[in-house]
Amino acid sequence: MTRHYVFNGDADGLCALQQLRLGPARDGSLITGVKRDIALLERVQAVSGDECMVLDISLDVNRAPLLALLGAGVRVQYFDHHFAGEIPEHAGLEHHIDLAPNVCTSLLVDRWLNGRARAWAVVGAFGDSLLDDARQLAERSGLDGAQTRTLQELGVRLNYNAYGESLADLHVVPTALADEMLKFADPLDFAQSSPLYGQIRQGYDADMAAAQRLAPLRQAPGAVIYMMPDAAWARRVIGTLANDLARAHPGCAVAIVSPQSGGDVVSVRVPREAATSADVFCRGFPTGGGRRTAGGINHLPRPELERFITAFEATYRSS
């Protein structure tokens, strides 16, 4: 029997994976990619009797290969918090899917494991911008203020490292990062001692300093849009910058457009109380999706940019 771990390369996917691998099920193939690379199940080469653990990628996007794996006799455990559509009923599928706005995949795994590696769940929640929930979990875990701040910084930087058009844009590829993390049961030790994390921290500081010089492309009450330059550093900061701008513009929807091959990639953040959720809005465009407060469009053809801007402002602009 072979175990296959299929996971998003961002902080939430990595920390969900880390919690599982710190238990007895360490061995297995790793299948992942950059943050936006979520059609991953089609890459799994599995046979009857194998196990597949899927973390932090939309079931709806991976429906056809999931059904093919189940049909081939592969047992699948699925942990996710993104739009799933209709969940298949199959004896070989065990799913832990929760679309609540205060849930991420790391928290779902933590719930399933009864807190076996909870500090890593805190990191994943911080990386997914669930700040209040992460702080509450850290407090219940007995972490002090300085330790909690360290885990928050770690989550944000792990998340930042996943953004790019391809693996070449990243400071550290997610598979290497996952194997480095596995050396550390305690994320505080990882933050202090990992040379790969030191590399990510240095890159983060330089990239975010450049991002602070950006000005909005369009700004209206309730909606603000940024256009990024066509540069690797800009592709790396898009997710972190979207979260930072959402906090800097409370009650406002934020969109960041980043040029990539043949079009644009878009990150969207909206307030929890918004009438239209981020995932519903983004699914109005091909390759769009996400969750209640955070969504994106993986490939927006350039001729569609004006339609996107018009729709975004019409949906979120306040009077």
Describe this structure in words.
With about 325 residues, the protein is of the alpha/beta class. It has 2 domains: about 5-205, Alpha-Beta Complex (inorganic pyrophosphatase (n-terminal core)); about 220-315, Diaminopimelate Epimerase, Chain A, domain 1. It has helices spanning about 10-20, 65-70, 105-110, 120-125, 130-140, 145-160, 175-180, 185-195, 195-210, 230-250, 280, 305-315; strands spanning about 5, 30, 50-55, 75-80, 95, 220, 225, 255-260, 265-270, 290, 295-300. The strands form 2 sheets. It has a 6-stranded mixed beta sheet with strand order 6-7-8-9-11-10, sandwiched between helices. The radius of gyration is 19 Å and the shape is globular. About 50% of the residues are buried. The mean pLDDT is about 95.
